[in-house]
Amino acid sequence: MSPEEIVNKMMAMDYFSKWLGISLIEIKPGYCKLSAVIRKEMLNGFGIAHGGITYSIADSALAFSSNSKGRKSVSIETSISHIISLKENDEITAQAICETETEKLGHYRIHLYLTNEPEKIVALFKGIVYKTSKNWD
Q: Which of 29, 46, 60, 71 has its CA 20 to 30 A from that of 103?
């Protein structure tokens, strides 16, 4: 399957990514770029995006990029550093890149930035995935 076919198959049942309003911009083996807009129901008591929102958007980018190579992969360790808070109507882009991999593990770096200001990194996410023996077909 092509990376596009894999992500389309994943998205068909990924109701949370759909709720996040994720739009896929680009997908290729080991790489994903997507965007989403911060909505009112994503805000916390401080009136800024809940940290779980940026985490979830990055986690979806990790899932799509790591599975795009054809092997079913699942995260086993992730972390995020929040740098800039987000407000309602902010549009962010998440760009996931495979940094290194072995037969069983993949290490991914995801930068989240304001779509109209790419130099403004809002969060940095790291993910390690386990590559199962099952292929997408």
A: 60
Strand 31-37 vs strand 91-101: parallel, antiparallel, or unpaired?
A: antiparallel
Q: Tokens at residue 90, please?
A: 């902010």
Q: For residue 60, what are the β-bridge partners?
A: none
Query: Where in the chain are the domains?
Result: 3-135
If phi > 0 it is left, if psi is from -120 to 50 it is alpha, else beta; for residue 29 that is beta
Q: Which CATH architecture has domain 3-135?
A: Roll (3.10)
Cβ neighbours of residue 90 under 8 Å, at least 6 residues apart? 37, 38, 49, 114
Question: What pTM was estimated for this model as a whole?
Answer: 0.96
Q: Going residue by residue through the chain (137 aa), what tens digit of pLDDT does each one get?
A: 999 999 999 999 999 999 999 999 999 999 999 999 999 999 999 999 999 999 999 999 999 999 999 999 999 999 999 999 999 999 999 999 999 999 999 999 999 999 999 899 999 999 999 999 999 98
| Rounded-to-integer distance, Cα 61 and Cα 73, Å | 13
